[in-house]
Amino acid sequence: MGIEVVVEGLTMSFGKQNIWQDVSLTLPAGEVSVMLGPSGTGKTVFLKSLIGLLKPQQGRVLINGVDMVRSPERDIYETRKLFGLMFQDGALFGSMSLFDNIAFPLREHTRKRESEIRRIVMERIELVGLLGAEDKLPGEISGGMRKRAGLARALVLDPQIVLCDEPDSGLDPVRTAYLSQLLIDLNARIDATMLIVTHNLDIAATVPDNMGMFFRRRLVTFGPREVLLTSDEPVVTQFLAGRREGPIGMSEEKDAALLAAEAVSPADRSTEPRVIVPQLEPSPGLPPRAAVTRRRERVLGMLDQLPPAARAAIRDTYARSAAAPTLTMPATGSGS
Fold first, then answer.
1. CATH class belonging to 1-82+159-224+275-326
2. Distance of alpha carbon 88 from the chain centroid
3. pTM for the full model?
Protein backbone atom coordinates (compact mmCIF):
# COMPACT_ATOMS: atom_id res chain seq x y z
CA MET A 1 0.00 0.00 0.00
CA GLY A 2 1.13 3.56 -0.69
CA ILE A 3 2.31 6.04 1.90
CA GLU A 4 0.55 9.19 3.09
CA VAL A 5 2.27 12.46 2.13
CA VAL A 6 1.63 15.39 4.48
CA VAL A 7 2.42 18.92 3.26
CA GLU A 8 2.38 21.70 5.87
CA GLY A 9 2.73 25.41 5.12
CA LEU A 10 5.05 25.17 2.11
CA THR A 11 6.24 28.50 0.70
CA MET A 12 8.51 28.66 -2.35
CA SER A 13 10.25 31.65 -3.93
CA PHE A 14 12.97 32.07 -6.55
CA GLY A 15 14.70 35.31 -5.63
CA LYS A 16 11.97 37.95 -5.35
CA GLN A 17 9.46 35.85 -7.30
CA ASN A 18 6.98 34.10 -5.01
CA ILE A 19 5.83 30.84 -6.64
CA TRP A 20 3.26 29.77 -4.04
CA GLN A 21 2.83 30.26 -0.32
CA ASP A 22 1.43 28.45 2.71
CA VAL A 23 0.44 25.28 0.82
CA SER A 24 -0.99 22.56 3.07
CA LEU A 25 -2.58 19.28 1.97
CA THR A 26 -2.46 15.53 2.54
CA LEU A 27 -2.14 12.97 -0.23
CA PRO A 28 -4.08 10.00 1.19
CA ALA A 29 -2.24 6.68 1.15
CA GLY A 30 -2.87 4.64 -1.98
CA GLU A 31 -5.25 7.14 -3.60
CA VAL A 32 -4.91 8.93 -6.94
CA SER A 33 -4.76 12.73 -6.77
CA VAL A 34 -4.61 15.32 -9.56
CA MET A 35 -3.22 18.86 -9.39
CA LEU A 36 -4.59 21.37 -11.89
CA GLY A 37 -3.71 24.97 -12.61
CA PRO A 38 -2.85 27.38 -15.43
CA SER A 39 0.64 27.31 -16.88
CA GLY A 40 3.24 28.99 -14.70
CA THR A 41 1.56 28.33 -11.35
CA GLY A 42 4.35 26.13 -9.98
CA LYS A 43 2.86 22.65 -10.31
CA THR A 44 6.11 21.04 -11.45
CA VAL A 45 7.99 22.97 -8.76
CA PHE A 46 5.57 21.44 -6.25
CA LEU A 47 6.38 17.91 -7.45
CA LYS A 48 10.11 18.57 -7.14
CA SER A 49 9.58 19.93 -3.62
CA LEU A 50 7.78 16.75 -2.56
CA ILE A 51 10.72 14.61 -3.59
CA GLY A 52 13.30 16.94 -2.05
CA LEU A 53 14.89 18.14 -5.29
CA LEU A 54 13.93 21.75 -4.51
CA LYS A 55 13.93 23.30 -1.04
CA PRO A 56 11.02 25.58 -0.11
CA GLN A 57 11.81 28.48 2.21
CA GLN A 58 9.16 27.47 4.74
CA GLY A 59 7.07 24.45 5.64
CA ARG A 60 7.44 20.66 5.76
CA VAL A 61 6.83 17.59 3.60
CA LEU A 62 6.44 14.59 5.91
CA ILE A 63 6.84 11.04 4.62
CA ASN A 64 7.23 8.23 7.17
CA GLY A 65 8.47 10.78 9.70
CA VAL A 66 11.11 12.24 7.35
CA ASP A 67 10.86 15.93 6.41
CA MET A 68 11.92 16.20 2.76
CA VAL A 69 12.73 19.89 3.33
CA ARG A 70 14.81 19.91 6.52
CA SER A 71 15.86 16.35 7.43
CA PRO A 72 19.48 15.23 7.00
CA GLU A 73 20.37 14.58 3.37
CA ARG A 74 20.99 10.87 3.97
CA ASP A 75 17.42 10.45 5.30
CA ILE A 76 16.01 12.38 2.33
CA TYR A 77 18.04 10.24 -0.08
CA GLU A 78 16.72 7.01 1.45
CA THR A 79 13.12 8.27 1.47
CA ARG A 80 13.46 9.35 -2.16
CA LYS A 81 13.75 5.66 -3.05
CA LEU A 82 10.05 5.34 -2.17
CA PHE A 83 9.21 7.56 -5.17
CA GLY A 84 8.77 6.85 -8.86
CA LEU A 85 8.82 9.98 -11.01
CA MET A 86 7.40 10.12 -14.53
CA PHE A 87 8.81 13.19 -16.24
CA GLN A 88 6.86 15.34 -18.69
CA ASP A 89 8.89 14.29 -21.74
CA GLY A 90 9.75 10.78 -20.59
CA ALA A 91 13.39 11.91 -20.02
CA LEU A 92 14.74 8.87 -21.84
CA PHE A 93 18.36 8.51 -22.92
CA GLY A 94 18.30 8.73 -26.71
CA SER A 95 21.26 6.41 -27.26
CA MET A 96 19.83 3.61 -25.09
CA SER A 97 17.20 1.03 -26.00
CA LEU A 98 13.92 1.11 -24.10
CA PHE A 99 15.09 -1.93 -22.16
CA ASP A 100 18.29 -0.21 -21.01
CA ASN A 101 16.42 3.02 -20.22
CA ILE A 102 13.98 1.16 -18.00
CA ALA A 103 16.75 -0.93 -16.42
CA PHE A 104 18.86 2.15 -15.61
CA PRO A 105 17.50 2.78 -12.05
CA LEU A 106 18.01 -0.88 -11.13
CA ARG A 107 21.60 -0.87 -12.35
CA GLU A 108 22.27 2.49 -10.70
CA HIS A 109 20.66 1.93 -7.29
CA THR A 110 20.67 -1.83 -6.67
CA ARG A 111 23.09 -4.74 -6.81
CA LYS A 112 20.68 -7.10 -8.55
CA ARG A 113 21.99 -9.64 -11.03
CA GLU A 114 21.28 -9.07 -14.71
CA SER A 115 18.90 -12.03 -14.78
CA GLU A 116 16.80 -10.45 -12.03
CA ILE A 117 16.97 -7.04 -13.70
CA ARG A 118 15.71 -8.58 -16.94
CA ARG A 119 12.78 -10.23 -15.17
CA ILE A 120 11.73 -6.97 -13.48
CA VAL A 121 12.17 -4.85 -16.59
CA MET A 122 10.18 -7.22 -18.79
CA GLU A 123 7.38 -7.31 -16.20
CA ARG A 124 7.16 -3.50 -16.26
CA ILE A 125 7.36 -3.43 -20.06
CA GLU A 126 4.41 -5.83 -20.21
CA LEU A 127 2.55 -3.78 -17.59
CA VAL A 128 2.62 -0.64 -19.77
CA GLY A 129 1.92 -2.52 -23.02
CA LEU A 130 5.35 -2.23 -24.69
CA LEU A 131 6.21 -5.90 -25.24
CA GLY A 132 8.10 -6.22 -28.52
CA ALA A 133 9.44 -2.65 -28.41
CA GLU A 134 12.13 -3.19 -25.77
CA ASP A 135 15.02 -3.11 -28.28
CA LYS A 136 13.90 0.11 -29.99
CA LEU A 137 15.51 3.51 -29.38
CA PRO A 138 13.36 6.38 -28.09
CA GLY A 139 13.63 8.12 -31.46
CA GLU A 140 12.10 5.11 -33.20
CA ILE A 141 8.81 5.10 -31.30
CA SER A 142 5.83 7.42 -30.85
CA GLY A 143 5.43 10.03 -28.13
CA GLY A 144 2.80 7.90 -26.42
CA MET A 145 5.13 4.92 -26.31
CA ARG A 146 7.89 7.13 -24.85
CA LYS A 147 5.46 8.22 -22.13
CA ARG A 148 4.72 4.61 -21.28
CA ALA A 149 8.41 3.75 -21.26
CA GLY A 150 8.98 6.63 -18.83
CA LEU A 151 6.21 5.25 -16.64
CA ALA A 152 7.74 1.76 -16.73
CA ARG A 153 11.09 3.20 -15.63
CA ALA A 154 9.36 5.02 -12.77
CA LEU A 155 7.99 1.66 -11.57
CA VAL A 156 11.06 -0.60 -11.60
CA LEU A 157 12.04 0.16 -7.99
CA ASP A 158 8.52 -0.72 -6.72
CA PRO A 159 7.67 2.83 -5.57
CA GLN A 160 5.04 3.48 -2.97
CA ILE A 161 4.53 7.04 -4.24
CA VAL A 162 4.26 7.79 -7.99
CA LEU A 163 4.50 11.36 -9.31
CA CYS A 164 3.46 12.03 -12.92
CA ASP A 165 4.33 15.42 -14.46
CA GLU A 166 1.87 16.16 -17.30
CA PRO A 167 1.78 12.59 -18.62
CA ASP A 168 -0.68 13.66 -21.34
CA SER A 169 1.39 16.47 -22.90
CA GLY A 170 1.75 16.00 -26.64
CA LEU A 171 -0.74 13.13 -26.79
CA ASP A 172 -3.91 13.04 -28.90
CA PRO A 173 -7.28 12.43 -27.20
CA VAL A 174 -7.31 8.70 -27.98
CA ARG A 175 -3.84 8.11 -26.51
CA THR A 176 -4.79 10.25 -23.53
CA ALA A 177 -7.81 8.01 -22.93
CA TYR A 178 -5.56 4.93 -23.03
CA LEU A 179 -3.14 6.63 -20.62
CA SER A 180 -5.97 7.47 -18.21
CA GLN A 181 -7.02 3.81 -18.12
CA LEU A 182 -3.39 2.76 -17.67
CA LEU A 183 -3.02 5.00 -14.61
CA ILE A 184 -6.16 3.55 -13.00
CA ASP A 185 -5.04 0.00 -13.83
CA LEU A 186 -1.63 0.75 -12.33
CA ASN A 187 -3.21 1.91 -9.09
CA ALA A 188 -5.30 -1.27 -8.98
CA ARG A 189 -2.17 -3.40 -9.38
CA ILE A 190 0.28 -1.70 -6.99
CA ASP A 191 -1.93 0.40 -4.66
CA ALA A 192 0.61 3.26 -4.70
CA THR A 193 -0.10 6.85 -3.68
CA MET A 194 -0.25 8.80 -6.96
CA LEU A 195 -0.12 12.51 -7.79
CA ILE A 196 -0.66 13.60 -11.39
CA VAL A 197 0.01 17.15 -12.60
CA THR A 198 -2.06 17.88 -15.71
CA HIS A 199 -3.93 20.48 -17.75
CA ASN A 200 -6.10 17.79 -19.30
CA LEU A 201 -9.72 18.02 -18.22
CA ASP A 202 -10.57 14.48 -19.36
CA ILE A 203 -7.90 13.04 -17.05
CA ALA A 204 -9.04 15.38 -14.28
CA ALA A 205 -12.68 14.34 -14.67
CA THR A 206 -12.23 10.57 -14.86
CA VAL A 207 -9.04 9.48 -13.07
CA PRO A 208 -8.56 10.99 -9.58
CA ASP A 209 -9.96 10.32 -6.15
CA ASN A 210 -8.85 13.82 -5.09
CA MET A 211 -8.25 17.09 -6.92
CA GLY A 212 -6.48 20.36 -6.22
CA MET A 213 -5.72 23.57 -8.09
CA PHE A 214 -3.02 26.23 -7.95
CA PHE A 215 -3.67 29.88 -8.91
CA ARG A 216 -2.25 33.27 -7.91
CA ARG A 217 0.48 31.85 -5.69
CA ARG A 218 -1.89 29.80 -3.58
CA LEU A 219 -3.61 26.45 -3.40
CA VAL A 220 -7.21 27.26 -4.31
CA THR A 221 -8.55 23.94 -3.05
CA PHE A 222 -7.60 20.32 -2.47
CA GLY A 223 -9.87 17.48 -1.43
CA PRO A 224 -12.26 14.82 -2.74
CA ARG A 225 -12.81 15.22 -6.50
CA GLU A 226 -16.44 16.26 -5.97
CA VAL A 227 -15.36 19.41 -4.08
CA LEU A 228 -13.48 20.88 -7.03
CA LEU A 229 -15.88 19.59 -9.67
CA THR A 230 -18.83 21.35 -7.99
CA SER A 231 -16.91 24.46 -6.85
CA ASP A 232 -18.29 27.97 -7.46
CA GLU A 233 -14.80 29.55 -7.28
CA PRO A 234 -14.55 31.72 -10.43
CA VAL A 235 -11.07 30.45 -11.31
CA VAL A 236 -12.22 26.82 -10.97
CA THR A 237 -15.38 27.27 -13.05
CA GLN A 238 -13.43 29.15 -15.73
CA PHE A 239 -10.71 26.49 -15.92
CA LEU A 240 -13.13 23.55 -16.02
CA ALA A 241 -15.25 25.23 -18.71
CA GLY A 242 -12.26 26.44 -20.75
CA ARG A 243 -13.74 29.99 -20.97
CA ARG A 244 -11.96 33.28 -21.58
CA GLU A 245 -14.19 35.03 -19.03
CA GLY A 246 -12.77 34.80 -15.53
CA PRO A 247 -9.63 35.53 -13.50
CA ILE A 248 -7.21 33.58 -15.74
CA GLY A 249 -5.66 35.56 -18.58
CA MET A 250 -2.86 35.00 -21.06
CA SER A 251 -0.38 36.33 -18.46
CA GLU A 252 -1.99 34.15 -15.75
CA GLU A 253 -4.07 36.88 -14.07
CA LYS A 254 -6.29 39.66 -15.39
CA ASP A 255 -6.30 43.15 -13.95
CA ALA A 256 -9.25 44.55 -11.99
CA ALA A 257 -10.52 46.72 -14.86
CA LEU A 258 -10.85 43.78 -17.27
CA LEU A 259 -12.57 41.63 -14.66
CA ALA A 260 -15.02 44.47 -13.95
CA ALA A 261 -15.77 44.85 -17.66
CA GLU A 262 -16.47 41.13 -17.97
CA ALA A 263 -18.81 41.30 -14.97
CA VAL A 264 -21.12 43.82 -16.67
CA SER A 265 -21.00 42.31 -20.16
CA PRO A 266 -23.05 39.23 -21.12
CA ALA A 267 -20.73 36.25 -20.98
CA ASP A 268 -21.34 33.05 -22.87
CA ARG A 269 -21.85 30.95 -19.80
CA SER A 270 -23.84 27.79 -19.43
CA THR A 271 -26.33 27.73 -16.58
CA GLU A 272 -26.73 23.97 -16.84
CA PRO A 273 -25.69 22.08 -13.69
CA ARG A 274 -22.34 20.36 -14.05
CA VAL A 275 -22.51 16.61 -14.41
CA ILE A 276 -19.80 14.64 -12.63
CA VAL A 277 -18.82 11.78 -14.89
CA PRO A 278 -18.09 8.44 -13.22
CA GLN A 279 -14.53 7.64 -12.24
CA LEU A 280 -12.77 5.06 -14.38
CA GLU A 281 -12.69 1.49 -13.07
CA PRO A 282 -9.87 -1.03 -13.58
CA SER A 283 -9.87 -3.01 -16.80
CA PRO A 284 -11.62 -6.42 -16.75
CA GLY A 285 -9.53 -9.09 -15.09
CA LEU A 286 -7.76 -6.72 -12.71
CA PRO A 287 -8.52 -6.61 -8.97
CA PRO A 288 -10.69 -3.81 -7.60
CA ARG A 289 -8.78 -0.75 -6.43
CA ALA A 290 -8.15 -1.08 -2.69
CA ALA A 291 -8.20 2.73 -2.52
CA VAL A 292 -11.91 2.82 -3.32
CA THR A 293 -13.00 1.32 0.00
CA ARG A 294 -10.54 3.40 2.02
CA ARG A 295 -11.59 6.56 0.25
CA ARG A 296 -15.30 5.91 0.78
CA GLU A 297 -14.81 5.55 4.54
CA ARG A 298 -12.60 8.63 4.67
CA VAL A 299 -14.90 10.84 2.59
CA LEU A 300 -18.10 9.80 4.36
CA GLY A 301 -16.37 10.55 7.65
CA MET A 302 -15.72 14.14 6.56
CA LEU A 303 -19.01 14.65 4.72
CA ASP A 304 -20.45 17.28 7.08
CA GLN A 305 -17.33 19.42 6.62
CA LEU A 306 -17.79 19.69 2.84
CA PRO A 307 -19.79 22.27 0.83
CA PRO A 308 -23.44 21.34 0.15
CA ALA A 309 -22.93 20.80 -3.59
CA ALA A 310 -20.02 18.42 -2.92
CA ARG A 311 -22.06 16.54 -0.29
CA ALA A 312 -24.90 16.06 -2.77
CA ALA A 313 -22.49 14.85 -5.47
CA ILE A 314 -20.86 12.36 -3.10
CA ARG A 315 -24.23 11.01 -2.01
CA ASP A 316 -25.25 10.63 -5.63
CA THR A 317 -21.98 8.84 -6.46
CA TYR A 318 -22.34 6.31 -3.67
CA ALA A 319 -26.09 5.91 -4.10
CA ARG A 320 -25.37 4.57 -7.58
CA SER A 321 -22.55 2.29 -6.51
CA ALA A 322 -22.97 -1.41 -5.81
CA ALA A 323 -22.00 -0.81 -2.17
CA ALA A 324 -24.79 1.70 -1.56
CA PRO A 325 -27.12 -0.63 0.40
CA THR A 326 -24.44 -1.15 3.05
CA LEU A 327 -23.78 2.56 3.62
CA THR A 328 -25.27 4.65 6.35
CA MET A 329 -25.05 8.29 5.33
CA PRO A 330 -24.21 10.76 8.12
CA ALA A 331 -26.88 13.31 8.94
CA THR A 332 -26.31 16.68 7.29
CA GLY A 333 -26.01 20.01 8.98
CA SER A 334 -28.37 22.80 8.07
CA GLY A 335 -26.18 24.84 5.78
CA SER A 336 -22.41 24.73 6.13
1. alpha beta
2. 13
3. 0.86
